[in-house]
Amino acid sequence: MPYPVRLAASWAWRFLIIVAALGVIFWLISKVSLLVISVLIATLITSLLAPLVKTLHSKFAVPKGLAVGITLIGFLALVSAGLSLAGQRLGVGFADLWNQALIGIQQVQDWLFNGPLKLTNDDVQKVLDDTLTGLRGNATNILSEAISWGSAVGQILTGVLLTFFTVIFLLLDGRRIGLFLINLLPRRARPAMDGALTRGWTSLVRYVRVQMLVALIDAAGIGLGAFFLGVPLAMPLGVLVFLGSFIPIVGALLTGALAVLLALVSNGWINALIMLAIVLAVQQAESHILQPLIMGKAVSLHPLAVVLAVAGGTMIAGIPGALFAVPMLAVLNTVVKYIAGRTWEKDPYVAEIYGEELASAGPPPEAADPEESSPPTTKTSPQPETRQPEKSVNEE
């Protein structure tokens, strides 16, 4: 066989084995997707809260457990306060808008009966009867869907508990957990992997901070647009947009739909269309400007890589894929560049922990310098520094 064909075949069967191995890994992950997603979400939350815990523990001499407790309680209180404030303002605002909603419903009814459709009571009753008949015929499917939704709610609650406890233990013993995984590797590989994972963790912290900035810009854009259009509940709407921006696709869709609905109920169709244009403009700016440029610069990724990562993650794993694609790519990029560049050899962090010898360890003994690895071959070496090894060899 020609050499190019043999070379292509060698690459081909190795590539197929790698693809098969990755397929098995993804299949196993799909069986424990709830556990994997909970751990990944906990990792993102930990990267957000860990700097605060470190500040309380190192600079203010707060015990580690107390620092974790203060940070978690403050985080939960902040999120709960934001949701509570937004919920209360929405409740009060919807109560004020109820009369306008009733007027809008009456206008829709008048358009149905007196507009171009010219519907009658018999037509409406027929539609209702057909709907009830369809519901009765699909009662089994509806019941199964309700049961599946109940199961989904149970899984969500389980995932929330898993995420909460994982965050606690990562904040308390994150370093020890990392060292346990690193110590599973050969001794020579530990300094490099420790430094690489530390750099990867730094990239993850940067990602979370930039994601908060992007969410804040989204909330400011939609909230200010609603405020200048005279849409009620602009402030709680901005809070909901900020929280929803952390959930790709679904969060933006729900909060944007809520903004348009408020504009429709309060100010009419024209105002709702303008609000829709503002929501779409903000979301497009986030997808094509904020995410690629700001996020790419923060995590050392090209803007095209960020766009492709989000699109590919969405196609592979849906919403979780869109949420974790960029941080995973950022961490992987940092780890690979760190190891490929042998950065641990001059990393002060690695040198401080593992010592200068381990931090600057060269290649394995079989690839070391021949002058250092080869034994002395003569007993009468003219170099003074080799007399001591020659004496020991003679004695042996």
Automatic annotation (TrEMBL):
Region (Disordered), start-end ranges: 359-396
Domain of life where this protein originates: Bacteria
Pfam families associated with the record: AI-2E_transport (PF01594)
Cellular component GO terms, alphabetical: plasma membrane
Membrane-spanning intervals of the chain: 12-29, 35-53, 65-86, 152-172, 212-231, 237-261, 268-285, 305-332
Membrane topology field: Multi-pass membrane protein
Subcellular location(s) per record: Cell membrane
Low complexity bias: start-end ranges: 374-386
Biased composition (Basic and acidic residues): 387-396
Keyword list, A-Z: Cell membrane, Membrane, Transmembrane, Transmembrane helix, Transport
InterPro entries cross-referenced by the UniProt entry: AI-2E-like (IPR002549)
Major subcellular site: membrane
GO-annotated biological processes: transmembrane transport
Family classification: Belongs to the autoinducer-2 exporter (AI-2E) (TC 2.A.86) family.
Protein name, entry field: AI-2E family transporter
Organism name: Glutamicibacter uratoxydans
